[in-house]
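Example pasted here:
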Amino acid sequence: MKTNMTQKQKERVDKILEVVSMVNNIPISEIKQKGSRNKYVVLSKKVCMYLIKNDPWLRRMTLESVGAIFQTDHSNTIHHLRRCEEAMTPDKMGRFTSNPNLRKVILDCQKLLEVIHGIKPSKPKTENLWALVKGLEEQRDYIENEIQLAKNKINALYQ
C-alpha cells in the first residue's frame, strides 16, 4: 500500500525515523523492513508509529498509511499504538508500570526530536484528562455553591 503524504509529512516521518534509528542504533532500512521479529527492531517500529500518530502534523494519517511506511497492516499498527499508550499512561496510583523500557525510549526520542528538529510532542492524553478533571471539579464547586445559595434563600423565606 502506498501512502499519500505531502512533502512536509514525508520530511517529518524521515526525521522521526532518523531519531529513533539513532536512539536505538538500528538502521532505518531495518525499521521499515517487513517481518522482523528482532525485539529491538519491533521496539523501534512501535516508537516510530507512536511518534508519528502523536505528531501534530501527522495526526490525520490513517492507520493504513502509518502501517504502509513499515510494511504492515492497520491491525498491527493498532496493536503497537496500544502498547505505547499503555506504557505512557500512568495507573491509578500515578505510576508507570507497563513496559518502562518502551516509555524510556519514547521519552528519549521525543526529547531528541525537540532538540534536533524542533518537533514538540503533543500533550499526552493524561494531561488532557487532568485538565478535564480540573474543569469538572470547578463545575462541581460552582454547582455546590449554587445549591448552597438556593438553600439559604429557601431558609430565609421560611424564617
The mean pLDDT is 85.
